[in-house]
Amino acid sequence: MSSGASCALLRHAESLCRERGLRLTPRRRQVLQIVCNSPKPLGAYEILATLQAEQPGAAPPTVYRALEFLLAQGLIHRLETLHAFVGCEHPEHPHAGQFLICTRCGDVTELEDSQVASSLGRAAAASGFRPRHRVVEVTGTCAHCARGEAE
Questions:
Q1: Contact in structure between 108 and 42 (CB atoms under 8 Å)
Q2: Structural domains of the chain, with CATH
Q3: Other CB atoms within 10 A of residue 61 CB
Q4: Would you say residue 38 has pLDDT above 50?
Q5: For residue 110, what are the β-bridge partners?
Q6: In terms of Cα–Cα distance, which of 30, 29, 45, 38 is closest to 1?
Q7: CA–CA dist 51, 57 (Å, integer)
């Protein structure tokens, strides 16, 4: 996520929290800013290390509580295959996460394709399965890295 996008997400996060009657506390905002400013997905301990550089007394529970809040509000996503977090590109409405993850450069692209979500929903219903959490993560090679492979 680019820094321009991160600034937009931070402003959007503040207004969304106000609309929902919730507080984007300074610590939550700081954790969101760390996640959004990173060029790659970050694990909780990477977030903690960045936070500790500014606030040496920061502890893991502080980061985990902030991440829980941000996840619950749809401001970030947890990438299961990487055990890492990225900022959400569509925080204004709930949606199933769909991600393309480049295994060469680490780039992550968030998609929001209603046909993918519908297809998964139909397949789950047809098998009698009731999903609680829908995340689609596709690993492979991004277009930039693929061009490099071809050369």
A1: no
A2: 3-87 (1.10.10.10), 97-150 (3.30.1490.190)
A3: 8
A4: yes
A5: 99
A6: 38
A7: 9
